[in-house]
Amino acid sequence: MKYRTPSALPALTLLIAGLAAPAVWASVYELPTDGSTVVGSDSDVKSAYEDTLTDIAHRYSLGYYEIIRANPHVDVWLPGAGKDVVLPGRRILPPGPHDGIVVNLPEHRLYYYPKPHGHEKPVVITYPVSIGKMDWRTPLGATTVIAKIRNPAWYPPESIRKEHAENGDPLPKIVGPGPDNPLGDFAMRLGAGHGEYMIHGTNNPTAVGMSVTHGCIRMYPEDVAALFTVVPVGTKVRLVNEPVKVAWVDGQLLLEVHPPVDEEGQTVEPDLQVLSAKLDHALGANTAAIHWDLARATLQAANGIPTVVGIAADNPDATASAPQASAATPSPVRR
Questions:
Q1: What structural domains and CATH numbers belong to the chain?
Q2: Which residue in 214, 216, 258, 291 is the catalytic one?
Q3: Which of 223, 229, 257, 280 has the fewest C-beta atoms under 10 angstroms from its C-beta?
Q4: Which candidate in 200, 214, 258, 291 is catalytic?
Q5: How large is the angle between the packed helices 272-283 and 292-301, nearest 10 degrees?
């Protein structure tokens, strides 16, 4: 079950309560009790005359790449009034433990699994994020939240100050709190590296969901405000690179593909051979009757929308009910 809930609410209990909604939303999903790793559903809205696609993305806590890949035929800056806009909300959870924070870099998305208390049902809260750009990649691996900072000051490393100076945009040694601070109003310092990586807000919301940072994880201001409140210091954080995710739902094989991120943190064109190998690895010991034309089309499109590409091989109706190809739709801190 998914709750559309105000992302600025200060406590998890309020996040899940489903109260009246302001303009910006977080996505909170109950974890399936049957062990499934699929949550949520897609929906759509009609654009208003004054909307841009990035306005709609921000309103529904979606990232830039996420919404444009789901709406390839909609103009980003002038969608026009009454245009149908798909809101991609069905997701396959990243592999691994449902514990703490998981950031999947190719997906440009963060998942938080809060510890349930008492009789609370386990949930996952998910937000779009920006990640590192070329030469400033976001590090992979396990780390923890080591500090939480309200109204942080930014101490740009010399390497970043040099980059800005070369571009004619010199930076001071310290950028204090306020509208010019690229860290926003809330920051959570990670133990990765020497503590220079953070999960933080931004003064440029339009860029959320892109590869534009100096290695940090950047969030919408409302999203980081909500996450900051409920994430304790010491929370585990996993930074993963999983462009291909698979899941079984009622005997059907779902495939979700995002454009891969290379060793420099850059989004690259899908390589079908590499992604096919990742699909084989993700399947593991499971066997499936896969419609490979459809699977390859899904791998090539890499639009982040889960697609049925096969059924369990032990299903006696495998041949008759196999999906058809026509179903494919294609200290110093970084910031």
A1: 2-110 (no CATH), 129-239 (2.40.440.10), 244-327 (no CATH)
A2: 216
A3: 280
A4: 200
A5: 120
